[in-house]
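step: validate -> pass
step: tokenize input -> pass
step: predict -> running
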Amino acid sequence: MSAGWFRSRFLPGGPLPAPRPPRPRTSPVPYRRPRFLRGSGSCSSTADSPRRPEARPVRCPARGRSLPWNAGYAEIINAEKSEFNEDQAACGKLCIQRCEFGTEEDKEWLTLCPEEFLTGHYWALFDGHGGPAAAILAANTLHSCLRQQLEAIVEGMVATQPPMHLSGHCVCPSDPQFVEEKGIRTEDLVIGALESAFQECDEVIRRELEASGQVGGCTALVAVSLQGKLYVANAGDSRAILVRRDEVRPLSSEFTPETERQRIQQLAFVYPELLAGEFTRLEFPRRLKGDDLGRKVLFRDHHMSGWSYKCVEKSDLKYPLIHGQGRQARLMGTLAVSRGLGDHQLRVLDTDIQLKPFLLSVPQVTVLDVDQLELQEEDVVVMATDGLWDVLSNEQVARLVRSFLPGNREDPHRFSDLAQMLIHSTQGKDDSPTGEGQVSYDDISVFVIPLYNQRQGSSSH
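step: predict -> pass
step: emit ->
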């Protein structure tokens, strides 16, 4: 991203963009649930009042519907925080062709491709905010963006070493050496494809929401199985973990205003116009008051991981760029995440201050080499939106997985049953497996992906 583009896009006083011809207003993005839930009902029923958190129905795929790798899925809507479930999910077979054979495709992406060259699988969770529209668009679009990105580099993916020129021509005899010295591997091409697909999907969401007059954004957590590796791409505060008999391994990191404090402060340092004179980029242990003027207090800036002291000036009394602690931390008092898709129209309340310049749509990608693991039958990846992790730790989820799976080996639906049980554990019931009565009032969506004997799902043809 060039500084010139950034200034023209986000900063006042820069060159004005060329006027766009007005577009006809399109219909709003229709609300929907994942198609693989069609024909399903709630996984449990209760006669209790719907206002009680334990009365919220948990939905799972119908018993006759199989997800990729026999993965399990369950979801629950929030406790009347909003009218709709703002989470969305998608999964399917990933079919990568040598070239594009046409533009028609199944938007649900659940049919087999007749001209496949490489195959893999895809699972994704999108946690919407400001309405469900962005999450629905991401669920409909991101897989297509990813497939196109992978098809553009598939020849490099199947080569022994990614070539300098995809055409196969060697302009410089030392090209292979340069690629080797850079340490460029096949997985780096897949990582690049995921990063580009997220960026492309973000632009699609911008266009569609702008055209339909809707707003909103979403986080995105994606797992892609390809060529014996599992790629986990995360932009937001959802989480994926690997659970094995003797190991719990995080496969993603949450991106919040706190975890990305220095990046956000650095941007405000380089482009102070983004703060519109309303915020201070400095972090203090608490919001400063008039009585703090002239006193030396703890602070830190964009270049600091540690703390120091400064004499409080009047400008330090402005509202903090990042305010709050933990789950309560907010960017400009508005947003709890620092990466995701959408939010192009999001403004600070009662102002024209944009938040999008501080938000990244680029994911962090973790690579799990499944072929190198000595897998056991109970080894799974658990992906879930933040409503689950608000009340359950990685270790608590791992204990629930280990206690449930060994006793249900013959049940073909055990992974969806496990996903349902994980959600049940967040609803404050006395018979909750954790026995701690914890309650999450947020939307929750969970995939449980078994890894055992699934290597054939990422073979090449």
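step: describe -> Residues 388 and 444 are 6 Å apart (CA to CA).
step: cleanup -> pass
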